[in-house]
Amino acid sequence: MAAAVTADQAGMSVALLDEQARPGGQIYRDVTRTGTDSADRMRILGADYAHGSTLTGALIASRVHHITGVVVWSIEEGFRLVYTANGAAAHIGAKRVLIATGALERAMPVPGWTLPGVMTAGAAQILLKGSGILPRRAVLAGSGPLIYLVAAQMVRAGVPPLALVETQTRGDMMQAMRHLPAALKGWRGLAKGLGLLAELRRAGVRRFAGATGLAVEGTDKAEALCFQAGARDHRIACDTVLLHHGVVPNAQAARALGVSHRWTQAQQAFTPVLDKWGGTDLPGLFIAGDGAGIGGAMVAEIAGRLAALKLAEEAGHLTDVARDSQAKPLFRARSRELAIRPFLDAAYPPFSDALAPTDSTIICRCEEITAGEIRQTATLGCLGPNQAKSFTRAGMGPCQGRYCGLSVTAILSEATGQSPDVTGYYRIRPPLKPVTLADLATMAETEATDPEGE
Amino acid sequence: MGPAPRPCPFRNFSMSADSPFVYLCPPARLVTIRFDGAELLLPDGENLAASLLAAGIDSFRHTRKSGAPRAPFCMMGACFDCLVEIDGVSRQACMQTVVEGMDISRPVGATHD
Known about the structure:
The structure holds two protein chains of two kinds.
Chain A (H helix, E strand, L loop, with lengths): L1 H8 L5 E3 L20 H8 L1 H4 L1 H10 L3 E3 L2 E7 L3 E6 L2 E6 L3 E3 L3 E3 L12 E3 H11 L1 E3 L2 E5 L2 H12 L6 E4 L3 H8 L2 H4 L3 H17 L2 E3 L3 E6 L6 E6 L2 E6 L2 E5 L2 E3 L2 H5 L4 E4 L4 E4 L12 E3 L9 H18 L5 H19 L2 H7 L4 H4 L6 E3 L4 E2 H9 L5 H8 L12 H12 L3 H4 L13 H5 L13
Parallel strand pairs in A: 1-2, 6-20, 8-16, 10-11, 10-16, 11-12
Antiparallel strand pairs in A: 3-4, 4-5, 7-17, 13-14, 14-15, 18-19, 21-22
Chain B lengths: L20 E3 L6 E6 L2 E6 L4 H7 L6 E2 L6 E2 L12 E4 L2 E4 L10 E3 L8
Parallel strand pairs in B: 2-8
Antiparallel strand pairs in B: 2-3, 4-5, 6-7, 6-8
């Protein structure tokens, strides 16, 4: 949204292809929504969420052609973007493209995580933001600031979680302390985190730290979360288990275009190789936001503006002097916002059991492939995810590896002793999302509309 | 087991007594849809997956390989676990809104071809 508006203000002709029906992405999802629960939702979701309305407001006031409810399933170099909207396929041409596909929650494969009633913590937020719905009896499990935020929002809504089962350890926090001085530059973020923890303490929400052996119990749906903590076995009966141990870049579109990615140890994920403006190794193709590497909503907004300034300069709408003078405060703000990341990455690492799941744990939800089956392909000589995919079908389902890709890389990498970079990732090809033949058939009829966007 | 909810007179409003989800406030206009042959009242124009969950629907489909039940996981169009058939077409429920008269069925077996 920030990038589109910045590019528009610079005089570019901009189309924004938005998967959602309303502006806001996932972080500010449905911030423009009005209804009887609006005041309640704003109070519960807090000021950081309300900030989204300044972005949606600027977007609505701009000349940006905002096309909503769009599934982009192919981006061809040059560029041509093919998408489906309202059951009809269409395409749009553009000289330059900015990918802002955000993040996905890092898959957290633990026994029972495919049962109904198990969702991501982000899913719970979406239910609250978009529909004003909360789970009655939920346990939050994993690690990271989002868990505290969701828990605090549930407290404010009057439906606190039954417990927080946290997987980070005291040792992680000790490791993180050396990043604390640098993180103080982003003291506002730290203060917010402490505020959330105080809110949870006041509400009397139970917290377990250093939990291991997490497993969701149930036959047809989640009935309890079992785990070990403090050298004891625990079982918490619940209807909903909300999993979270960080977010990772949603790189499907960038990968399909062949953008180079590199393993980032601190984030335990692949991130695209970019210049300081968000430019990829493909001319005219930029990436901004969490899809470029996890930085959070404020970093995404700043990066979007920076990419737009560079795009506008390349298109001849801004001189490089004007670009640089507008960019200078943005670069500074970005480094301030990023200051807290090394601390957070070290304090709340991914849950190690879920990075190396037990043999019987499903890792590919779509095709129901277990970690053991992937390990077996390694003993058969599979070195990379693409071979493992043809052996097992892992990553071949409708989600196209979005939730198993990093698990497969990690498991193979561990089994072969090769680095994640050498092991690699799935080769992503269009369609990025399944398209029905009926949708495709409509394409010929809509050939005409092709505003030559910039 | 759930703690006592606060204000909003309809705080504990739920479309179904045994739904694991509660609304902050009751949805305004309800319309009739069909889910697996049974009639359901869902809020008009609201997110379909969310509305089905709030109505107490806990299984959206069965997997092709083992027949295991699945329900919404990511709610953002990425995981495809909420795939249902709407008027015969396979769609992600979390990317759809409630429309009066929708006829939804639970896919059993093939989920994508």
